[in-house]
Amino acid sequence: MRDIHFYYDPISPYAHLAFERLPQALMGLSHQVHYKPVLFAALLKAHGQLGPAEIPAKRDWTYRQIAWLAQHHGVALDLPAAHPFNPLPLLRLGLSTATPDMPGETSRYVTEQLFHHVWHGGLDAADPARIEALQARLQDHMAQRLKPWQAPDGEAVKNSLRANTDAALALGLFGVPAMVVDGRVFWGQDALPMLRAYLDGDAWFQSGAWEAAAQTPVGVRR
């Protein structure tokens, strides 16, 4: 069985698309996916980058592209009422459902609920009343496994999110979604075919081409 670590932030439409397409990409393989929430903004800050939605022309293109990709792949996707937004309450809510045997992880069900909260219905993802309702649904669903329910605004949950984000940075992650297998990082929803090829044993990954990409000299720095 292969372990796949899926790093995500529900603020990312590409992470939503990748999440929805992941079962099809992994069909027929023996695997376990570990869903790891991280703060996308912290990854951007660490690398001195702006997010796609923070660059006006890129923002417009991003929303057009994800709308096309969603219909192309048959994935439900509605832009939230406002984007970007502060995803911290959702990230912490997700991690509050982590269990001792899966620290720092969300189940596929919880991950799905976070993405659907943002990308289904065109509503305000940051609306406190909606987040409270989502918490109630998750708590009811997870009640038999959660002993006790961890407060989303508690220090344990906040530390778990920091630890996940720090671990992502240590792996070299610069964006979401990112799938990590055997220390190799596959970034973006469009990397799913590449991930599948690796898991299928594609000879390219043993050719040295993966390693050679990191040896390309830098011609100029701005």
What does this structure look like?
- This protein has nine helices and four strands.
- With 222 residues, it is α+β, with helices and mostly antiparallel strands.
- Strands 2-1-3-4 form a four-stranded mixed sheet, with helices on both faces.
- The longest helix is centred in the first third of the chain and has 18 residues.
- It starts with a strand and ends in a 9-residue tail after the last helix.
Task: Summarize this entry quickly.
The protein is α+β, with helices and mostly antiparallel strands and 222 residues long. It has helices at residues 13-25, 40-46, 56-73, 88-95, 108-119, 128-142, 155-170, 192-199, 209-213, and strands at 2-8, 31-37, 178-181, 184-187.
Q: In this structure, how is the largest beta sheet organized?
A: 4 strands, mixed
Approximately what portion of the residues adopt beta-strand conformation? 5-15%
Give the CA-CA distance, first to last residue: 44 Å
State the order of secondary-structure elements, H for helix, E for strand.
EHEHHHHHHEEHH
Number of domains: 1
